[in-house]
Amino acid sequence: MTVDDRFTRDFREPRDDQPLGTRNEIITGPVADWATDFSHFEPEWSADPYRIQDDLRQRCPIAHTGRFGGGWLPVRYEDVAAIAYDTDDFSSRSIIMGNFRPPVEIAPIGGSPPISSDPPFHHDARKLLLPAFTKTAVSRLEPATRAFCHALIDALQGQDVIDAAHEYAQHIPIRVIADMLGFPAEDGPQFRQFVENTLEGVNLPPEERIERMQSLFDYLLAQIRDHVDHPRHDLTSFLIDAELYGHKLEPGHVAGTVALLLIAGIDTTWSAIGASLWHLACHPADLARLVADPGLLPTAVEEFLRAYAPVTMARLVKHDMHFRGVDMKADDWILLSFPAANRDPGQFDRADEVIIDREENRHAAFGLGIHRCVGSHLARMELRVALEVWLDRIPAFSLADPAAVTWSSGQIRGPRTLPLRIG
Amino acid sequence: MKVRIDPQRCQGHGRCYDLAPELFGDDDEGYGMVLNDGDVPPDAEHAARRAVSNCPERAIELIEENQP
Q1: How many structural domains compose chain B?
Q2: Domain range spanning residue B53?
Q3: For the whole model, what pTM was predicted?
Q4: DSSP3 helix / strand / coil % (chain A, rounded to 5)
Q5: What is the tens place of the pLDDT at every residue in A143-152?
Q6: Interface of A with B in 369-388 (CB under 8 A)
């Protein structure tokens, strides 16, 4: 057996033969017209993206922006679906719409496979992960998740006001993914920082953005090296050992996938739990109904996922083309809003209403096509268990101060401050 | 009545085996599979229709058999 030296050197050191990506001028500030100048990082969008998207659906329906070096925002279900299914014209080589485009040569693997990968590589990188994320596999994590939710609420006993985003929701996915990756649970606060830097630090000056991303990969590399020295039964050791086409994975593939699982597993589920509790705090009739009939929860969870879908993806246009009435150019961004698709009245009856017993619900909260969220079964389990335990332990609550609620900006949407009055 | 999953469309969302576990199961990678050759007993017809109307990929086909 040879020594695994893939991670001894820093594999990130740039080589002379590597192509560079492109950076564009960073433009921030109030949006002039959402149809021609949209930005998912302005406060108006964070406060209520649905009103903006509903308006655009009437008059565009594919909006444009010159920010982020140029991009498009489809808001109809059929356009979002068409792009999600079309991997010939749209690449996933970057899935965070910002001010940096990685070089074309990074495709079809991308920086964080398989989410950043295109066919044909995508299929094989994804196949490695699927068995760990089936409904059966994640059901084994349910008892520990439930116990952890109870422990969180035990610790909050006696408080009149609980910040459900900060003191409850965020801790659940952090603990679950730390356990799955085999990372120390006490590093949770650092994970939160990594997530914020990656997803919300898009408009920072490039040096600062690069430095922050480096700190994430420094941390991951230390964890990976520790796993090489001390293998365990967790996803990190699994990826270190995994083979593709007869070879161990490239070190950048291992680190990129671990980064993906860490980043994508936290903010998203945190947001879904928080948004569901926010809805129930604002809608006492729905709350009373769910407390009286907990069997309705799985259906309600799907409706919360539809109406408050936390995840918006991005794509890069592969080549100049005419697409559904607009002229797209190579390397234009697509802000692929599954939340907007989920509220299209062309696809859903009473699309703007939350109907917790909705019978027919083909929502796209976990995406459509080959990039369906690999963690969707895990997210559903966490969301259901988090709400079951909360409603069991805290059946009566309301918004303590509506003005104090804050929402994240960027591609993942959920409450980041959510003070709830108990009782 | 029978159900069929189009494996070209199925992406493993798992709505069918969530909503109608008596008709659908999952394989080792989470993709949906029909149970019992896709036969739908009369008392499971509602569950079959729910699975169809909740599949985000529209991957499930309902085959209504002609009455003799």
Answers
A1: 1
A2: 2-63
A3: 0.96
A4: 50, 10, 40
A5: 999 999 999 9
A6: 369-370, 372, 376-377
